[in-house]
Design a protein that fits this description.
121 residues; alpha/beta; 5-stranded mixed sheet; 4 helices; 7 strands; globular
């Protein structure tokens, strides 16, 4: 499952990757992400939470890249990723190089609490 939500007052887009994530989940969620981005200002932040991820299909890489490009076009300023298990990192740093042309600051955290502190939540 893929969950996207936003908090306008905190200028935050939350992307949750939960249990098994399929490319179809991300394709369906991309419209939600686009609608949420329309509500956020330039310089917004992204919290990509892989804490509850069990597995992700390999073909999700393309869809994640498309979501990154949407965020890049809107002017993301900071990307914080929660990846508690390094085996669940599907190459997000490499994807960042190809899909974020504006090069936002990107930070990897091992726990949601660490990310929350970094984002002042």
């Amino acid at each position: 499952m893929f969950l996207a939500t936003a908090n306008k007052s905190k200028k935050l887009l939350y992307l949750g990757f939960i249990q098994q994530v399929r490319a179809e989940d991300l394709r369906q969620g991309r419209d939600d992400v686009a609608a949420l981005l329309a509500e956020l200002p330039h310089g917004f932040r992204v919290l990509a939470d892989l804490d509850r991820l069990e597995s992700m299909d390999a073909d999700c890489v393309t869809e994640i890249g498309k979501v990154m490009e949407l965020c890049d076009q809107k002017g993301v300023g900071l990307v914080v990723r929660v990846v508690p298990d390094a085996t669940k990192d599907i190459g997000l740093n490499i994807l960042t190089l190809f899909h974020y042309r504006r090069r936002p600051r990107a930070v990897m955290c091992h726990a949601v609490s660490e990310a929350a502190k970094l984002l002042s939540l």
